[in-house]
Amino acid sequence: xxxxxxxxxxxxxxxxxxxxxxxxxxxxxxxxxxxxxxxxxxxxxxxxxxxxxxxxxxxxxxxxxxxxxxxxxxxxxxxxxxxxxxxxxxxxxxxxxxxxxxxxxxxxxxxxxxxxxxxxxxxxxxxxxxxxxxxxxxxxxxxxxxxxxxxxxxxxxxxxxxxxxxxxxxxxxxxxxxxxxxxxxxxxxxxxxxxxxxxxxxxxxxxxxxxxxxxxxxxxxxxxxxxxxxxxxxxxxxxxxxxxxxxxxxxxxxxxxxxxxxxxxxxxxxxxxxxxxxxxxxxxxxxxxxxxxxxxxxxxxxxxxxxxxxxxxxxxxxxxxxxxxxxxxxxxxxxxxxxxxxxxxxxxxxxxxxxxxxxxxxxxxxxxxxxxxxxxxxxxxxxxxxxxxxx
Amino acid sequence: xxxxxxxxxxxxxxxxxxxxxxxxxxxxxxxxxxxxxxxxxxxxxxxxxxxxxxxxxxxxxxxxxxxxxxxxxxxxxxxxxxxxxxxxxxxxxxxxxxxxxxxxxxxxxxxxxxxxxxxxxxxxxxxxxxxxxxxxxxxxxxxxxxxxxxxxxxxxxxxxxxxxxxxxxxxxxxxxxxxxxxxxxxxxxxxxxxxxxxxxxxxxxxxxxxxxxxxxxxxxxxxxxxxxxxxxxxxxxxxxxxxxxxxxxxxxxxxxxxxxxxxxxxxxxxxxxxxxxxxxxxxxxxxxxxxxxxxxxxxxxxxxxxxxxxxxxxxxxxxxxxxxxxxxxxxxxxxxxxxxxxxxxxxxxxxxxxxxxxxxxxxxxxxxxxxxxxxxxxxxxxxxxxxxxxxxxxxxxxxxxxxxxxxxxxxxxxxxxxxxxxxxxxxxxxxxxxxxxxxxxxxxxxxxxxxx
Lengths: 391, 452
Prior knowledge:
Radius of gyration of chain B: 22 Å
Number of helices of chain B: 9
Strand content of chain A: under 5%
Oligomer: heterodimer
Shape of chain B: globular
Largest sheet of chain A: none
Helix content of chain B: 10-25%
Number of strands of chain B: 21
Number of domains of chain B: 3
Order of helices and strands of chain B: EEEEEEEEEHEEEHHEEHEHEEEEEEHHHH
């Protein structure tokens, strides 16, 4: 294997026959083998961690949510159609049929763009898309048309990332941009003929919206308990708190199960990849707004419901903590996380048009993260200046 | 004794090959080199030609900017070769040592009664002035300046660094002489930082005429820059000098004996060193003199003058640096590793990141090599760097300011306070494989050019 690679390598080097495919070759080679590059300047030894390792751990952390999502897609389908004779493997089988095409589209479109832009810049291909591509299918409804997904992915990767210079330079989380693109571009396609809350309510109340043939997707975020965030609404839908924690509710593919997400969170926190400060402060922010709304009578659901409903936890664990688009300073992370959580719940409580506030909250805070950092760093500079004066 | 300053952040790199506390041999130098590249920003003027005879202490180079600062030969012998690099940049002056060493005698008089001016001119004449490093920027000390204070770190936390207690056990008399002399060059006193672990038992604790501080913590707690940051931070317009115990010993020897004697105990260390131990050698000595410490038949050894974080790759024919009392031998890691990053375990490699499991075996030592372990990327992770930098500085912001060449920002983010060695650990842990040290060097060079 190694010999084969060494043999074909010269053809891909500068001036070789396939010199224009240098980045592509390099990407595959470094995927198989850790490169033989040695340190040239500076520190002679380096830590054996690299971005590939970090990204692959992120992907591993997402696996529980993905596996649960595959099963739940089938399970919700069987519920919606009253397929009571479906066993576990039927559900998984159906889920695979639904979810695998999403992954194929997400990775093929996304990676193709990554490879091409790396080629144009002459960089090595960045592995950041491995994670974005893993997340995107988990935050869209299982029934989203594949061509739409392809456009959304292309939009997110090109305008969200490559125009800024690739992973590490982007302002917004690319996975969320893909979802936002779908959300704003195709609201009607994603929610059936009628305005989407009504259709969703009908589906939940009668359980046969899909069967009635109006094309309503069975696993759409708007169809989650978020669509009727009140005690009465949840009771009418037959959803209790445990259903939401287990995740046996309709919703985007990967974001329903609190337990699966928490397994991922444990992996991320154990390995130290995601910031516990952001996670904690986001949950605190969500709880604070949730209870504020509860005490003001905006909602009759206690604050912790806000955490387990919808995409809040998924966003908190996997997307708010994106090291590139979140705040960079440690103090900034507290502020950033808290505002993400608080804004997400605020949008939910006060704007019935957008029941899923998490996406908007994270994108908004992505935008403001550099500002937060700016003030934190400024404060640090003036603190230093003061300290030096007194010393 | 002032209060202990405990630094929580940092990292001791667990590399194998620490030197035994014994002196294995005394090296009789054959060819030695004087290397102007050891000094930042030096524009050297060559004072000798090939074939010239020199004594130990005879001038070889001078600083073009202040011609009184001389760089002298550590041995007596014959200049054999002047090595130049690109654009005829002067790299090395090689001197073949005589069998019998002769020293140029410097008139020192009574060391105690020397005046500041006499000390200055003596140091410049003898070639020991360059042992004083001026901050900001880490350059040759300006003879006209009166520094705020002089700082010395009496211990090193760098990977496999020579143990100061062992290396200077016979030098305390010389160091005391040097401290007495240098304290006349500043009003702020000579500050000595001790390791809190044995601050009272330290040989350095017996020094007089100094101000003590104690530090505890992992590397870089022993870096003088980190210590200054906590004792008296450098602000714009400040000038401070630092000097290493090694150079204090040499200065003391000059003042006591009148000789430019650069002999020293050198730690030969690293995973590729056989029976790592100390040798008695001299600055500028050749790696070939260490032949019985290594087997380079596969030519896979990197020879580093200094430690693995900040040292210079000098190659098998290279020479020890002016400030060096450590040689590290490690393996060149130019091998491909199949699925390295994807393997759940890589038990032979160390990582600070918990994405591997080496943090579960904190006492293990590793045979590290020079593999980069990844490809260069943009900054992605934000919280790994501050964990290894015990300074109130945002390293990533500073580095980005250096990349952007933004002088104001560089100033605000503390470029006056750091040298490459202080950010070396950030470079070590960086998962994006960004070259902090060389970016910072470029930043410092830009500052010197623009602010001059």
